[in-house]
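Q: I have two molecules that I believe assemble together. Could you output structure tokens for the complex as a whole instead of separate predictions?
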Amino acid sequence: MLVMIRLLFGAPYLNPKLHCFESHSKMPTVIALDVSLSMSRPVLTEASEEYQRRHFAIHGINTYLDVLSSTCKLEFVSLVAFSYLWEQLCTFTRDFGTIRTALNKVEAYSKTCFETALNGIRTLISDEWNNAPCQVVMITDGSLGIGAGSLKASLQTANSRQPSEKFPLPFNFPCKIHIVCIGSTSDPDVQRSLPYYQKLIDMAGYGGELFTLDGGISFKSVEDVFRRLAEKYFSQFWGTLCCGNFTCPVQLFPKPEPLVRDVDEERDTYNISDKIEIIGFLDIKDIGSPPTIARHLILPRSMKDRDREDGKGGDGKGNKPEEEEDSHDDGKTPSFTVLLHGGLKMESMVAIARIQKDWFGMIYSWADSKKKSNLMLALFEPGQLSVPWIGPFDQLTSCKEYAPETLYSDEEKKSPFPVRSADKHSYAYNCVVWIKPSGLQSDIQKVLRHARKLPDKLQQFYKELNRTRRAALSFGFHSLLEALAAMLERECTLLPGTAHPNAALQLTHSANFLLSEAATDATQNLTPLQTNFAAGSNG
Amino acid sequence: MFNPQLQRPSTRILSYNRVHIRHVAPLTAQQRASLPPMTVPLLQQQQCGLTGRPVKLSKPHTSSDSFLPNQLLCLLDDNQGNGVDISVSRRGLPLHECELVVVHSIPLDQEIRLNDRPLKELGPVLRSELTTSLSGRHLYNKLVYLCCRHYDLCSTTVTGIPMKEEQNASSSANYDVELLHPAAAHDDLFKSEHAEGLVIPSKEGLPIETAPLKWCTPKSSVVELHNCSAAYRICPVDVNSRPSSCLTNFLIGGRAVMLEQPRKSGTKVISHMLAAHGGEIFLHSIPSSRSILEDPPSISEGCGGRVTDYRITAFGEFMKENRLAPSTSGLLKRLEGAPSYAKAIDHLEKSSRFWPMVISETILFNIINSVTPLPQLMMKETLTEDEVIECKRVIYRIVGMETNNEALPVPAAGARGKGSKRDEQYRQLWAELEALVRSYSDTSSQHAKVLACLQECRKPPQPGAGDDVTAHAQVTLNRKLSTPGQGAGAKDVGKVGGAEVEQGWRELDRLQHMTEREKQDFLQGEKQTDAPPPKKMKSEDLLMRSGGQTLLSMWNNRLRTIHAKRAHEFDGRVDVDSDGKAKLYIHLEEINDQEQIAPTSTSAKKG
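A: Yes, here they are, computed for all two components at once.
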């Protein structure tokens, strides 16, 4: 049996550039608190009451949650306690109150063991967030643990493990690890531990920082260190949404992180600019469902936030009359974001926004549930052609540059998109595929079907016959021509008496041609026999 | 003899390579001598270039395997590894990388006597491997396998596609279609730890694994916006078989198909979507894991969320007018390298120069029928004489309306109960109109003419009133001011027309101290009778529907309705229901007091 190969692929059909890479913007946070016995060591303070390191740590976490609840209300935070074992005290939640409650119930257990904690965190993130990027805040007291489970021992053996007992770092998801050390930097134990902590952070490979107290342990120094952490790594992104003369100060949540991409051994870093500039609008059906690398909620910045910022500037605006503060009723001051959201939702459109040179995104109305919808910014991959069907972003222009009605018509569903690719794909061609016997069989059957309806299907018969013949020739499948000729001759003998005389003539003509020398010449075409039955050949 | 037609697929593979990897380079004469004869023409086709991967298809000339030049076999078998150096091509271009894949194909009735040689470094730039295959279907499978390996492809099988039978259109059967696509499309699928059982052997008999994903029949043809993390082009394994072309035609026709992960239990998980864009079919990856964006706040909870009268419909039109389109080559040429989107931004700027966001802040856009086509014409780059006349006609129309004291559609009372007095409304209308025209007046001298006409026609502004904007029109005119934030707009207005704001507030305060009756008279002005206010119409409706009322109340209602139609009810009678007594001129004293104070102390606010 002869089965011929037709190459599977047409012209270049895979665009290797359309490649997704990790975005670091979705960031659930894990607070990992060391609850080993060493955390229960008392701290000498001037106060009459005796406090343990644990109390300071809890105080610090509360400070951190305070900052978070004003800047990152939507952050998901989970609380994990670790010693020799680990336990998730509070699942991922936006309700920081439950974490505070859980903190109050923390008890003291055996010895510090970082590796267990890291293994636990890995399980949590991969189970719950499918390996989304995350941040971890580990709070410890400067002791590395003792014996086999100590951080020192873990790190020493990290590179010589069996695959089954692999050291948890680096995680198989991007993760920033911050370590807050509740201990006086003058304490020799603490000094000895810090390099190991730094090693741990470096192994994670996605940044993160080691935070130490300024001076001794006091409520103030602990508060400061946690505030420093929160302000540096859990700050808000503030920018401006512009659309022509409409401008609106906005916050993006989650905070966009710089994007790092390796191209040809070069490292490109893309930072989102604080001006999100709408360049125009597109119908949802035109943008399709484009690939995006990150999504951020666009929240209008409230007057209060802005006042607070102004106040921080320290130019004396802080002492403005109270009543004026109250007169900003945020809900009732019109905001462009709400207008834009309403328009986009009603018209099923998206806004295309430029966020940086060579980097674009789209703004649309997004609903998690049916009830609550909000304004969302989804970022395309940096570059011009990240959505091939709308063409290079820099080449998008207003339809007003042309006669708009010739481009768009809602009644006729007319639109200048999609931009068609110059490549034709094998599935778009009506090409002959004889990989499997069924392919060949169905093509021959098609010829025979038309042959039986001669002379009505004269044109179709010759079209299909030539198509099959050309394919046979290009595959070097010459024996197929003889087989075809035999089949057509047989059809001729089977013609019913009522058949049109032209049918027999055409069949014989075709069979003879297939057997002739000319049939193997790919440049020649088999044409219908010219007959006097003009009425019959109505094609 | 060797079949020359077989060259075609291999050539195609080569040209394909050239696109994927940057270039394919020719070999030197010595190198060519050391390679099988078939390979040479293939390499020669690639005239310039640096790296590449020729795939050579060969077939034994005789029953022996000796056709492969011994040099090549020796090279492949040579454990010493001191192979050929082909770092510079015939044309002097440096050759960076070359991977020669020889596919040795043997007729079906023969036995494969040659062993596969794995990929081996033959020198600094040349790698080579030999692989054998039976011809026909097996060769095809081998080639697909090589494609998958060389281009990092993997396979997805769409299962359970319902299709009508060719012969019997009323019955339908389920088919599976296998697709090839870049392997990255499965990243999300295998990221989770529950990935076991997600792949099965290829249903098309390819020597690769495939991930079966279940077809979900699309319910509507409405195009929705899905959250996709990536999109990859696909190609069916059996390109134009009936099930494949059924699927591809369905997709190219504009429908999107969601694909579901096979799960024995639990909820349905959609992991991919198939959709065509511009005739190309893409496999979209849909993230299925938990997102930090879940349960977001509603937009109505944020700033401006409780404002209910945004001009959403008008903004819809604004968006449609500012839809994007790809640039034509003519436009690109005209722009001389400048990005086209800048043009789109210009148009956006132009059409948003005067654009109140809420209905209650504008009168102009609530009587848009009376002012058409002025706003549209003003946005144009140039105005003809006729168009200027059109604009002027609109201005005259408004003058006429004001002379006749025609009622304006008063925006629903906003937060501060605005827009009450008729002439005040006209003042607002004029201010809006002027702000609109002024914002375009520097476009051309013709535009300036319209502004001049407007300024002539507008009533001389009241003493002390600013000539720019009124207190009630929030004007988005920060084009040149570039003030941060539209929220600051109200403040700007305060600065610009401070004196007028004061006046506006004073009038408003006075109005609030009047009785209903006085207000009506105050607003109706001179002897102009309007249609009864809609509020009163309602009470008539009430009468028709009133059930369970006493005869007296019905009679009173009826009387009230009749009187209300005629004129505003005498206050004494309006209030008679409440406590039987009505005080006349309730604010008389206060007003008298105020009028005495007002001229002396302008800072008096909200008595």
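A: One point stands out. The first strand of chain B starts at residue 51 and ends at 52.
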